[in-house]
Design goal:
- The structure is a single chain.
- The protein has 7 helices and 9 strands.
- The protein is an alpha+beta fold.
- The radius of gyration is 22 Å and the shape is globular.
């Protein structure tokens, strides 16, 4: 096995990793470790061992997270958040997701009383399993948005969206989301082309966030 073949393996891996289960990705990482023994070139061996996106993750924690997802029980662990530091969290895992080639867990966090996504590499303590399954609060919000200008002209209906009204210069859509962070990101991404019509509490949240952003730039 030479460097050219190792780079071909990496290209294939990058084309399929986000469509495979975590268990399959662990097996592929083991495969790379095994085939790295079939080269006399140290640089090529190191390259093969560095392809996997799971290479720096704690495999004991990762396997416990897989188990937690399958059994759907509540778990707890210490999470070293980038901004707030270490905190003990409770969590129900629904799935895994890669973002910018980093592995996250998605699910409901009773500590925050919200759906959340957490970076697996920031989990710094062993996983504790709880016997109770508990009730997960339904956090689905129904939001009505009005889009104008470029956002109106380029609008394509997505999942969880329904067109309520459309005229020559704007469109009103109903959107459902169970994750407030993603909802706010979606609304802010439209910029001035988007107006929140309901609910009232979300309109207020958007106003406060925009005021905070304005203050940051005013003081710059």
């Amino acid at each position: 096995i030479n460097m050219a073949l190792a780079k071909s393996f990496e290209k294939l891996y990058n084309n399929i990793y986000d469509r495979l289960s975590i268990q399959q990705l662990i097996l592929i990482e083991n495969l790379f470790e095994n085939i790295s023994k079939y080269t006399l070139d140290i640089e090529t061996a190191e390259y093969l061992n560095g392809i996997s996106l799971l290479k720096r993750l704690n495999k004991t924690i990762l396997k416990d997270l897989i188990k937690a997802k399958n059994c759907r029980n509540k778990i707890s662990f210490v999470y070293n958040a980038p901004n707030s530091g270490k905190q003990e969290l409770e969590f129900y895992i629904t799935d895994f997701e890669f973002r910018s080639k980093k592995l996250y867990i998605n699910g409901y966090c009773p500590t925050f009383k919200d759906n959340s996504f957490l970076l697996v590499s920031k989990i710094v303590s062993p996983i504790t399993f709880h016997l109770e399954k508990g009730l997960i609060e339904d956090l689905t919000k129904t939001v009505v948005l009005e889009l104008k200008n470029a956002s109106f002209l380029n609008y394509q209906q997505n999942e969880n969206e329904k067109v309520i009204k459309k005229n020559s210069n704007s469109i009103k859509i109903e959107y459902k989301s169970d994750n407030e962070f993603k909802l706010l990101q979606k609304i802010l991404a439209y910029g001035p082309d988007c107006t929140v019509l309901s609910p009232i509490d979300l309109k207020q949240t958007i106003k406060e966030k925009l005021k905070t952003m304005l203050e940051v730039y005013k003081n710059d």
